[in-house]
Amino acid sequence: MENDESVLRRKLEMVCGVPLFWSIVEEWAQVESFQARPDDLLISTYPKSGTTWFSEIVDMIYNNGDAEKCKRDAIYVRVPFMELIIPGISNGVAQLAKMPSPRLVKTHLPVQLLPDSFWENNCKMIYVARNAKDVAVSFYHFDLMNKLHPDPGTWEQYIEKYMAGRVAYGSWYDHVKGWWEKRKDHPILYLFYEDMKEDPKREIRKVMHFLGKDLKEEVLDRIVYHTSFEMMKENPTTNYKMIPKDVMDQSISPFMRKGIAGDWKNHFTVAQNETFNEDYERKMAGTNLQFRTEI
Ligand code: PPS
């Protein structure tokens, strides 16, 4: 890639108090004026919560379980990452403007930063949440290998930054709570990574109903099979291996890393876990949003 130095490993910049990749901030006017269409489906998540998994599932539902059709292109082409603008390399807003309807749109934006046109067009949205501890571990490994984000430092340093919301897309706590509240007045299907691990067919059925589709059992079974961790890890259109190594170095940590619930136990020390839990109680007080940290 040209100009590596000027693009990669730069510090995050702020939009309304939320830290984001620097050029998303520079090009924020483009993101803010994004033109949603009424038949867009938005897949929204805090990073590392199962975006790629649910994107593949929804694309498979749209294509009636035809796995070959879903291999037509990389997941980030089939489901463009709306706000990601990297000068000279990628522009989610422009990519989506050229895309025929119905479009699948990926975002990690916290609810208050979502472009107004999504609300104005009453777009359907799927929000996927994953427990805070597994997200922290996944995000740490991602930031080690993904040069678009600042270097995460040590795990000890990272966990503090994460708890303070000083990572890309800001506070996990505010993100999951913000979208949880919004579902009260907007068509948002709020799902959990852990539920999906527990019973993928049940969760895929929820998505199917939300999208107003009716697929045969055998098609659902095919979707479960094709979107398993093992299959997606081997699938070049979902494992991000098409991204150049100077941006994502999968020899440091693969994008499809472990795909489990409860890996945090292999990383948190007893002391870190206690501190994290105390802080969690404070930040999540007053919400009825519940997470499972193992299944
Ligand atoms: S990103 O970069 O924010 O869009 O990443 P995202 O896709 O949201 O999250 C990546 C994590 O999801 C795991 N993953 C899966 N888990 C189970 N089953 C399937 N099919 C699957 N696909 C992706 C992926 O492995 C990352 O989690 P970790 O814990 O790092 O393995």
Question: How would you describe what is shown here?
Answer:
This protein has one domain: P-loop containing nucleotide triphosphate hydrolases (Rossmann fold, 3-Layer(aba) Sandwich). It is an alpha/beta fold. β1 and β2 form a beta hairpin. A 4-stranded parallel beta sheet has the order 6-3-7-8, sandwiched between helices. A two-stranded antiparallel ribbon has the order 1-2. It has a two-stranded antiparallel sheet with strand order 4-5. The mean pLDDT is 97. The longest helix is centred in the middle third of the chain and has 14 residues. The protein binds 3'-phosphate-adenosine-5'-phosphate sulfate. The site of 3'-phosphate-adenosine-5'-phosphate sulfate (PPS) has 20 residues, from α4, α8 and α14.
Strand residue percentage: 5-15%
Task: Report the average pLDDT across residues.
Answer: 97
The count of DSSP E runs of length 2 or more, i.e. the number of strands, is: 8
Write out the strand line-up for the largest beta sheet, numbering strands in chain order: 6-3-7-8
Name of the CATH superfamily: P-loop containing nucleotide triphosphate hydrolases
Profile the largest sheet: 4 strands, parallel
Helix content: 40-55%
Shape: globular
CATH topology: Rossmann fold
Radius of gyration in whole Å, from Cα?
Answer: 18 Å
**Quaternary structure:** single chain
Poorly predicted tracts of residues: none
- The sequence of SSEs as H and E is HEEHHEHHEEHEHEHHHEHHHHH
Question: Which structural class do the helices and strands define?
Answer: alpha/beta
Distance between the termini: 41 Å
